[in-house]
Design brief:
single chain, Rossmann fold, 7-stranded mixed beta sheet, binds S-adenosylmethionine
Length: 212
């Protein structure tokens, strides 16, 4: 499996274009649901060395537990610039931000204790490749903690999502009809828990670990 440069450039461009609007676009959902889900996910993070894939504008930074050190990576430099501003605004000391593609990371094998992603594997061009890289850079027994949206369980809704997916991807760089739990398994992770968070299980919390 290798990185597809055209698809990766497309995703980077979409997120660089969206960066200025991203926080405003998500404002309502953040206040109603996402912040609560983020807080709950990060309360479970043990560390001490944590990788956050697709850190975006840094919405998780306020929830990083003080006892862990988080390395956040993102493909889009304009998203990362927003994350840097957020990090400085709250004077966060326990993290670093790097421009890096999750599909081909510069880290050595078994660098991290845990990996976290929130709403990311809907947009990583090759999600299984990215999840395999995540598996490589985490220690044996290390955990993957995810909040992701994916293909709904009710068949009618799933069909509608599959139908509109190409148009949404073209506009926003995001896929709304991915079978993300199957992608996690296909990459070699062992699933511990999948918790549906919304109607049709579109949003789910996934906890998995790397085999020893
Ligand atoms: C929907 S945003 C989510 C941002 C953030 N995690 C959050 O919870 O708000 C998806 C992010 O994943 C990043 N991304 C997509 N593909 C990536 C890749 N291959 N490597 C690293 N980051 C990637 C995008 O640039 C974008 O910032």
């Amino acid at each position: 499996m290798t990185v597809n440069p055209e698809q990766t450039t497309f995703t980077r461009k979409r997120y660089n274009t969206l960066a200025a609007l991203y926080d405003a676009m998500e404002f309502g959902m953040e206040r109603r649901q996402f912040q609560r889900w983020r807080q709950h996910l990060w309360q479970d993070v043990q560390g001490p060395r944590v990788l956050e894939i697709g850190v975006g504008t840094g919405k998780n930074i306020p929830f990083y537990p003080p006892r862990v050190f988080v390395t956040g990576i993102d493909l889009a430099e304009k998203m990362l610039a927003k994350a840097l501003l957020r990090m400085q605004a709250i004077d966060a000391q326990n993290n670093a931000l790097l421009l890096m593609d999750a599909q081909t990371m510069a880290f050595s094998d078994a660098t991290f204790d845990e990996v976290v992603s929130t709403f990311v594997f809907c947009s990583v061009p090759d999600p299984v490749l990215g999840l395999k890289e995540a598996l490589r850079v985490v220690k044996p027994g290390g955990r993957l903690l995810m909040l992701e949206h994916m293909l709904a369980e009710p068949p009618t809704l799933a069909r509608a999502m599959t139908y509109v997916d190409p148009a949404i991807h073209w506009m926003m760089g995001v896929h709304i009809a991915r079978p993300t739990v199957a992608h996690v398994t296909a990459a070699g992770w062992l699933i511990d828990q999948v918790t549906p968070l919304s109607y049709g299980a579109i949003f789910r919390r996934i906890i998995a670990h790397k085999p020893n």
